[in-house]
Design a protein that fits this description.
two-stranded antiparallel sheet, globular
Length: about 100
């Protein structure tokens, strides 16, 4: 199920995008001292770069520790400070046309 990208909505909010993903699998730890991982496929990413692996430990609204299940639909949000972004349609110094 594809969900639309979520742009930043408030003026003081960091520039961001939210992409949809699905938990493909839960990877058991190779040793008890290492946490299990959740592999998430980000649907809108390039084919070779769509998998993310994160520690499979989240907190619910009550502060309880929970884990993702295979097949779970998730949102992946990427955000950056405004000083680390640039307008897409600007002619930057790295552009061949500006040299």
């Amino acid at each position: 199920m594809k969900r639309p990208r979520k742009p930043a909505t408030e003026k003081n909010e960091k520039p961001s995008v939210t992409l949809s993903g699905t938990v493909e699998k839960v990877i058991p730890p190779p040793h008890p001292s290492i946490p299990e991982k959740a592999q998430i496929a980000v649907e809108e990413a390039d084919h070779m770069y769509r998998e993310l692996r994160i520690e499979n430990s989240l907190e619910d609204e009550n502060g309880n520790h929970v884990s993702l299940k295979p097949g779970a639909e998730v949102n992946v949000t990427i955000e950056a400070d405004s000083v680390n972004t640039a307008p897409q349609n600007s002619k930057s110094a790295t552009s061949p046309a500006s040299k």
